[in-house]
Amino acid sequence: MENPWDRRFEGQDYLFGTEPNAFLVSQAFRFEPGMKVLAVADGEGRNGVWLAERGLDVVSVDGSGVGLAKARALAHRRGVSLQTVLADLALWEWESEAYDVVVAIFVQFAPPDLRKTMFEGFHTCLKPGGILVMQGYRVEQLRYGTGGPPHADHLYTRDLLIRSFGHWEIRHLQEHDSVIEEGAGHSGMSALIDLVAEKARHDILPLPSVEAAQADLRIAARTSVCSQAGSLAAERTSYRPRNADAIQSSTSVSRSASPSRNRVITKWSTPDSESNSPLSGATASMQLIITSDGIRSSSSPAIMSTRPA
User: Fold this and answer.
1) Which end of the chain, N or C, is more open, meaning fewer C-beta atoms within 10 Å of its C-beta?
2) Largest alpha-carbon pair distance within the chain?
3) DSSP readout, 116-178?
4) Mean confidence (pLDDT) of the chain
5) Given its phi and psi angles, is residue 34 left (phi above 0), alpha (psi -120 to 50 degrees) or beta?
6) If DSSP codes are grouped into helix, strand and coil, which group holds residue 23?
């Protein structure tokens, strides 16, 4: 069966040009020589070759042998080398924790099921602390028709990316309409979305869609809990987090006949203005229940309400 991408790449010209994607270039400060990079669906190699020119160790994977041959030719002309891998990404095995960076620029050939597999693969193959750099078209791109697939379910929305990468540390997430000129394949005003996300460095995943302010609350709460566990005779406790003026907190103590059943329930919420989350306007809340034996149960912060960014 003929590979449609082989047919698209078979011309002498480079379908998407030979210059790297502009958003990728804008993230150059995140890359260091020697980092191992997986360039996903790298096609004719414009992005992989640029990364190799920066001194990175690049693996360029694509489903088109014609495209990869042109990638190797471009690398040769630029005086750099990269490893090319011909693979069907629907069947490819993602090597565990093998890469420092994954680059996924316009990988929207993938329908929803394959996209889910690929997103999970990105997490699998990155080392803890590794980063994903991704740009794609938003659904609004269908109005422009200047590149990308004509299928809405292949395109991205902000909510889709937040749901997909909420257990990562999202470093950058931006929607914008911009003119891009990337060969004949991508040309003109385009509805874009940019993402940089970092894989967690530890076993406990970050809170979905809750960033620095809420994470600080969680840490402070645990510290407060430990200091209270040894003195449950107090009839009222209080917690004053860093942003005390902006955070509403309430604490109650209930007693039973047996001291062993004494409990302290601490609850607070952060208003919209304190959230630095990608879900602008999110409100987070937390409950901690303490017994004389220590923490009896704890519920993680949850998104209580949202409003459009």
Assistant:
1) N
2) 85
3) HHHHHHHHHHEEEEEEEEEEEEBTTHHHH-SSS-S-GGGSB-HHHHHHHHTTSEEEEEEEEEE
4) 76
5) left
6) helix
Which fold would CATH assign to domain 4-198?
Answer: Rossmann fold (3.40.50)
Q: How far is CA 70 from CA 22, 113, 204, 215, in A?
A: 21, 29, 42, 46
DSSP state of 21: P
pLDDT tens digits for range 155-197: 999 999 999 999 999 999 999 999 999 988 888 999 999 999 9
Exposed/middle/buried for residue 267 (C-beta within 10 Å: 0-12, 13-18, 19+):
middle
Of 220, 249, 255, 252, nearest in space to 236 by CA: 252
What are the CA-CA distances from residue 122 to residues 40, 95, 130 (Å)? 9, 10, 10
Alpha helices in 44-145 (DSSP H): 46-53, 65-78, 112-125, 141-144
Say how far apart CA 250 and CA 266 lie, in whole Å.
7
